[in-house]
Amino acid sequence: MPEQKKYKAALYYFEEDNLRQRIRDALEFVDWKNRIYPDSRIFVKPNLTFPEFRAGVTTSPHFIEALLDVLKERTPHLTVFEGDGGYNSYPAEKAFETHNLYQITKDRGAKLLNISRMEWKYIDVPTPFGTKHIPICKEIMEQADMTISVPVPKQHFVTRFTGAIKNHWGTCPDSMRLRNHYFFKYAIHAMIKAYKSEITVVDGEYFLDRNGPVTGDMVKLNMTMAADSPHTADAVLMDIMGVPPKDVVYIPTAWKMNIGPKSIKEIELNDDIAKFKTHRFYFKRDPVDYLATAGFHSHLITWLVYLSPLNKFAHDIIRLLRGGSRQVDEYYTGILDAEKNKH
User: Fold this and answer.
1) Omega cis (within 30) before 213
2) What whole-number distance in Å separates Cα of residue 56 and Cα of residue 203?
3) Conformation bin of residue 109: beta by default, left when phi > 0, alpha when psi is -120 to 50
4) What is the structure's pLDDT at 306?
5) What is the three-class DSSP state of 51?
6) What dotted CATH number matches 7-285?
7) Which H or E run includes 108?
8) What is the pTM of this model?
9) Whether 62 contacts 94, CB under 8 Å
10) φ and ψ at 131, to 5 degrees?
């Protein structure tokens, strides 16, 4: 008798006309009907890391539509949520508008929340250098029966890879959450637990190769996946993308905390994963990315570049080295100026 595996995930290719069915099939494999009930309050977290839809960067509007339609078969209590862009780069309302989320949620009787406008609650984050604290959305923490992460799989110029786990960083309502990067690898797992994040549904229509999370090479794969947890989902995605899990800063931390699978062999899959390895992914950092990576792990560098009186000077130097901002400063500045002019 084959050994029973602890974790589960289902992978499917899809076309435009069968996306809902493929999402439904994947959810069936992870036993969603015994985890989501008619009275369940489900909060859906897409990846809106750019203020307009960009293939391979943000969760696509038609994928969010399809997922909500399928989830509505089990419960009408659905909420889509996101917070403002990091470093006050853009208001979530702009991303809601450009991803058509006002209409999508209205048509399905779902709610739409910008958690940066809501009450915060601080949770404890145990670290080797003492207990830290990070804010999360009080309403979701208290009301959610489950949070579903809906990531886009990407290379990441700092953390090497971003998928279902890192998508939860956007569940921190503080747009200056980067000040907490130095204990990110501990905080992210505490946040996932506090938000009751379980089933994960991946928008794999496009992946992002070479670099990310905003700049990189779009790869169209037309794939979706449902997994029993964000950690299971990322284990599968990293295997598909050829990313060594030990190179992703928050994965060894999860292992030490006994969270998630340590090997793809621990995951029961619905199909042969080799069928989904149709593209050879690669990763390349720009030279200045190494400075950003050092800053990600250092409280001092983060303070110097983003929070100190020298932050403008530091940013000017970084832009000079890079030849422009990775986060497209001019674009974001235009959005913020337009928003200010409305008031």
Assistant:
1) yes
2) 9
3) left
4) 67
5) coil
6) 3.40.50.11440
7) none
8) 0.90
9) no
10) -80, 125
